[in-house]
Write a structure and sequence with these properties.
By secondary structure, the chain is mainly α. It has four helices and four strands. The protein has a single domain, classed as Cytochrome C3, CATH 3.90.10.10. A two-stranded antiparallel ribbon has the order 1-2. The protein has a two-stranded antiparallel sheet with strand order 3-4. The longest helix is centred in the N-terminal third of the chain and has 16 residues.
Length: about 90
Amino acid sequence: MKKIVLAAVLLMAANSFAADIMYLKRGVVFNHLGHQTEKVGLCSACHVETEGTPGKIPGLGKDWAHRTCIECHDIFEKGPTKCDGCHTKK
C-alpha cells in the first residue's frame, strides 16, 4: 500500500514540475501542458516510466522529434506536420 501511495505522490509531483511551455532549438515552442492534459494525456507516450513516474525521453533530439511528433500529429490529424509549423524562427 505504501508503494502505491508513494507512486501516486511522485507522479503528481512530476506533473507539477514539468514545464508548461518549452522553448526548444530552431524556434520550436512546445506546449507541454497542453499535450499532457488536452492532447496525448499519457506521459508514457513519449516518456519512459521509472518506478511509476515518467522520466526522460530516450533518444530525444531532432530525429526522434521529427519521427515521433509528426507520426502522432498524422495519427490524430492535429498539429503541424510541415517544417514551418513547428520551426517558427527564420
